[in-house]
Amino acid sequence: MLTFPKNFLWGAATSAHQVEGNNSCCDWWRWEQCEGHKPSGAACRHYEFYEQDFDLAKELGHNAHRLSVEWARIEQEKGKFSQCDLQHYIDVVIALKERGIEPIVTLHHFTNPAWLSGFGGWANKRAVEYFLRYAEFVVRALAPHVRYWVTVNEPTIYMSHAFLFGVWPPEKKSFFKAKTVENNLAVAHIKTYRMIHKTYDKMKLPAPRVSIAQNMMAFVPCTSSRKDKFAASLRDRLYNFGLIDKLTRAKTLDFIGVNYYSRQLVHLKKWGVGNIIWDTCQAGHQPLPKNSLGWDIYPAGLGDILLKLKKYGIPVMITENGICTTEDEERWEYISEHLKNIHMAISKGVPVLGYLYWSLMDNFEWDKGFVPRFGLIDVDYKTFKRAVRESARKFADVCRTGILK
Ligand code: IFM
């Protein structure tokens, strides 16, 4: 029996574009209309059904929920801010509070207003100033109801998929652009962090807690060779901790948001810059169970990462962790094994604030469409009916009691 700390935050996460539906003014929506791409359409119609969805979250014992505000709704046209859409998000966070659920609000979760693309998106440093202006508009209105903020979701994933591998809009494949985007996102975080704190000060509100949600991966050497060990530790330092180091140096993380899913088995064909960065084991060594997207399931990796985060002396929040699967028993197995690792880290002195499962409900998994099923709640995309999964009920027992049996 494992007991978690009192006041632990238990819940799930979502993002606007993936659940709300008809998010037609953002760059992703435009991109989805191209041939061969998967459209998000009505998604889960969460924009309309958020109250029922939060009723379910409450029934499931959640006391926290992470959501994102959609920039493309708030500022459909450059410089024109929508009070009506802002009011929607005020209503959303109030709906959570009324149910005793702590809102954790993300300001940027992969999507941008379509108009930003005209400026080169995040590759243009003006994006920082536009983002800050939007963020301030939102923060001023939501501050009385919100304590936890995530400025940018998975900056490294966004930068690499959109500007390096070119598989997400705007499909750029440029190392230099990617580096610029990475830097612009870091600056955007730093400025937004300071703006949020200043706003709370001016409004005489209790201090907010602000972070990013950093995608972290377990990099495991495939063999005990110097090559594999060196590359695994370098990737760990650069991919997992590079940005965290930078933002902690700037004193702009009140907690560290961790999105953890999987492992990469590092195996170098030969010494070489490209090999050090990219090579993985192709021989099926150290096989592990996989989710339906083929990602290795490796709960111990989360424990290792949490232990490494201890040195920062900042609280940590698991802002995402989840599995896509059609076998719901695997979901509970996944959750409970990750919780065991979190508990181990807590027992070794890592201050973990909470655990947010990805995701509350099945949703639009970006370029993969609606096939991957990550939800605690099943969504029928024809009728939009929700059905609570057995794994959600098992997780609910932990959320209600703080005990993993
Ligand atoms: O669906 C995504 C989410 O938007 C960001 N983190 C990873 C999830 C699963 O791929």
Detailed description of the structure:
The chain is an alpha/beta fold and 405 residues long. It has one domain: TIM Barrel. It contains 14 helices and 12 strands. It has an 8-stranded parallel beta barrel, surrounded by 6 helices. A two-stranded antiparallel ribbon has the order 1-12. It has a two-stranded antiparallel sheet with strand order 10-11. The termini are close together. Bound molecules: 5-hydroxymethyl-3,4-dihydroxypiperidine. Residues 15, 18, 154, 259, 320, 358, 365 line the site of 5-hydroxymethyl-3,4-dihydroxypiperidine.
**Strand and helix order:** EEHHHEHHEHHEHHEHEHHEHEEEHE
Q: Total strand count, please?
A: 12
Note the main sheet. Answer: 8 strands, parallel, barrel
What is the average of the pLDDT values? 98
Instruction: Tell me the structural class.
Output: alpha/beta
* Fourth-level CATH superfamily: Glycosidases
What is the top-level CATH class?
A: Alpha Beta
Note the gap between the termini. 4 Å
* Count of helix runs: 14
Helix-residue proportion: 40-55%
Task: List its salient traits.
405 residues, alpha/beta, TIM Barrel, 8-stranded parallel β-barrel, two-stranded antiparallel ribbon, 14 helices, binds 5-hydroxymethyl-3,4-dihydroxypiperidine
Concise summary:
The protein is an alpha/beta fold and 405 residues long. It has helices spanning 16-19, 27-32, 46-59, 71-74, 83-98, 114-117, 126-142, 155-164, 175-202, 226-249, 273-278, 299-309, 328-347, 390-401, and strands spanning 2-3, 9-13, 64-68, 102-108, 148-153, 209-221, 256-266, 316-320, 352-358, 377-379, 386-388, 403-404. The chain has one domain: TIM Barrel, CATH 3.20.20.
